[in-house]
# Entry
Amino acid sequence: MFLRIFKTTWAWLDARLGISALVVPMITHRVPPDARWWYVFGSATLAAFLLQVVTGVMLSFSYVPSSGDAYAALQYLSHDAPFGRLLRGLHYFGASAMVLMVGIHALQVFLFGAYKFPRELNWITGVLLLGLTLGMGFTGQILRWDQTAVWSVVVGAEQAGRAPLAGEWIARLILGGGNIGGMTLSRFFVLHVFVLPALIMGLVGAHLRLVLRNGISEPPKPGAPVDPTTYRQDYAALLEKTGRPFWPDAAWRDVVFAAGMIVVVVLCAFLLGPPELGKPPDPSLIHADPRPDWYLLWYFAVLALLPPATENVFIVFAPLAAGVALLVIPLLFPRGERHFSRRPWAVAAVLTLLVMFGALWRAGLDSDWSPDFTAQPIPQKVVASTDPLVQHGAQLFFSKACIHCHAIEGNGGRRGPNLTDVSDRLTQEQITIRILNGATNMPAFGDILKPDEMKALSVFLESRREPGRKSN
Amino acid sequence: MKLEKITRRRFLTGISFGLAAASAALVSVPVIGSILVPLFRRLPEVWRSVGHVDSFEVGKTVPVVFQNADPLPWAGVSAKNAAWLRRVSETEFVAFAINCMHLGCPVTWLPDAELFMCPCHGGVYTKDGEVAAGPPPKALARHQVRVRNGEVEVLTMPIPIA
# Structure
């Protein structure tokens, strides 16, 4: 009964709206049969984006895009609003899923040589979408308007400020003026909620249109190079012979994978929850330890590990060069072999990228370069001496800030060398010279330490040696 | 006859494109202007009182908190700023911007070591704000300081962009 009413209503509507006429040919277009599970990452990215749109709209019901009030609204969202914590979690893990999926999608397309003729513009729109996704990640982290967000804006502005000529202008545009203030958050809100999503939606439309027009690439075979003069005929012949309708023959895998991804996102949101809010967005709170979310942690490492001399050039031109390089790949290599077994350089590039990102990401997790301001004085058990000079030295090691950068048996920072057994490497004289003169990443303490303090410190450090080795 | 028809078409095409471009140009003035507002607005500087002279001990370096030059009504705590203020002598004060010149993170004063240290990438400055170690390309920026009617006043400034 209900089914009959539904069917007649739908038939009435469809006759006037023409939805079937528009959509059915689109979703039943023929695709190569052996694409299988490799091809699910693009649709999973789209699914993650849709999840972001829905949860983002829901979050903005409670969000207040004002530099002064956003923090209170976020506190309410996180702790009091019904479903607020879950929504924040969904949006956070949804963002993570989207970044992950768009990254895997790009790698897969590259490794399969699917960017070659006639799909150059599929790749180029995809690269722009990849950039916009990272842009959404950065601006979204700013909307979590706590202390870390404030300092992330400052760091972003300072980076842009390195650009030649227009640097200072760009920095002022990012800050929304000379300082953090009322303009800052509103502008990031507009970017995150209106401008970037609109660009993404437009480009997703173009990307999908291109997928339909040029067809899903057939999985590559070694020894079957792309020749632009014959490719389209060959592809049409392939579809004619073995093609299957996209819906449902191929699409079910996309649905299964996307559904699985969303289940994982929901589970993470529910079990792990969103990132906790930091301290209030008050730039006068000096003790800050800003670091980005995981998907930008590798860049945090890049900024820390760059040799200072190359910094100005690198900060501005490296992201630019990386973007341009990605964009021109299909223009430089539109033809030839697609299978990775015939493209050793492509495989090497992917492996290099993966190792690089992995290593930088790992380094970002540890972030050894950040001084440890929470370090406590060296415990007596570690000092292990009743010599008053050693005792005094141990106390100076803490009070003169050595401990923020140097660790002794796990007590202290990792910015500089570990000094647990420093006297196995350096004599007391060498230790003294190093402390008085400093080094590239270590201040000279010649003007700071009094002679007796220098003596005590060097005696203390000289007593740091591998257990068992006798003092000389 | 045929020629006239084409001319008319071309005229209408021209009119349509022209009108669309003119109206877009008209609207783009306020649109682009509002995006670029932070560039046109003069960056004002204001003297802000940070405390009575007697509340600062000679030789001590302390954080002082003040409002930015032109806080918008909804800026709340985000319009606050801080500086490291040192009373050098009875009459002389210096104030350092808190922003590290590497990437702007807030530096911390370590009184016993007499160093400013940055939590982000380990930049270190001497007590005079000169670069002592690490990545910073420049010395810490300084706020102007003056004493008026027994009050120490700091001149606000934009975040220094290296």
